Amino acid sequence: MVLGVLTAIAACPAIVGTNEAIQMTQKNQMKQMHRERKTNLVVSCTHQDNKLWIATRRQTANDDAPEGHQFAGYFFKHPTLNWGRKGDGYVSTIMDDPPMLNWIYVDKDTYEVKYGTKSESEDHRLGPFSCTPVDHRLTFDEWEGFCAVEERPGIWSLYFDVDDDGLEEKVSMDKDVLEIELIRREMRIPHSKPKDVGPEE
């Protein structure tokens, strides 16, 4: 009887260790599944001043708003760059038919957030992109520095404030700059979805 109890006590740490390993594996798998799901980005203003205007894609015929494709992106390992636990690259579809992906990057000169093929994005800041654990707000280089800049009346473009100075050296003083949050919102899964291809070379 004593031998049985001692055996059970000796086996306890191994059982606990195995359970912890299984839980960690499951947690990592769930995290990876979340990061690979396509999401839209929802913009919210960090300063509630009721003055955030976002150009919609359904402008009137007289409007000069750029035509566009709704952001549908997810984290994606870059073939040559590795940021480890800090994050990954980020890609988005740029058209549905045929499905085509481009890399999302921060322009090294202007700090604009742009998209492009592997060769177009090569010399720019490609990551690491990640998100906050609870609210799933998008981060770049481990922090939230996204800004909306009004390029023309009612037309806003996305920047990342690399120098954390309100884009002082990058945007002219006559343009409005707002600090914003980008919240990843999971897209609805359609009944039958086209298979994504890799990012363009």
Outline of this structure?
Keywords: Signal. The chain has 201 residues and is an alpha+beta fold. The chain is 19% helix and 29% strand.
Task: Describe the protein.
- With 201 residues, the chain is of the alpha+beta class.
- It has two domains: 36 residues; 141 residues.
- The chain contains two helices and ten strands.
- The strands form three sheets. It has a four-stranded antiparallel beta sheet, with no helix packed on it.
- Strand 3 and strand 4 form a beta hairpin.
- The protein is globular and about 60 Å long.
- It starts with a helix and ends in a 15-residue tail after the last strand.
- 21% of the residues are buried.
- About 9% of the residues have low confidence.
- Keywords: Signal.
Which secondary structure elements does this structure contain, and how are they paired or packed?
Elements lengths: L1 H35 L2 E7 L27 E4 L12 E7 L4 E7 L6 E4 L1 H4 L7 E3 L6 E3 L5 E7 L2 E6 L16 E10 L15
Antiparallel strand pairs: 1-10, 2-3, 3-4, 4-5, 6-7, 8-9, 8-10
Based on CA inertia axes, which overall geometry fits?
globular
Radius of gyration: 22 Å
Average pLDDT over all residues: 75
Largest sheet: 4 strands, antiparallel
- Helix percentage range: 10-25%
Number of helices: 2
The string of secondary-structure elements, in order, is HEEEEEHEEEEE
User: Ends: how far apart?
Assistant: 68 Å
Which runs of at least 5 residues are low in confidence (pLDDT < 50)?
6-10, 50-62
Residue fraction in strands: 25-35%
In total, the number of domains comes to 2
Quantity of strands, as a count: 10
Side by side, the strands of the main sheet go 1-10-8-9
Structural class, by secondary structure, is: alpha+beta
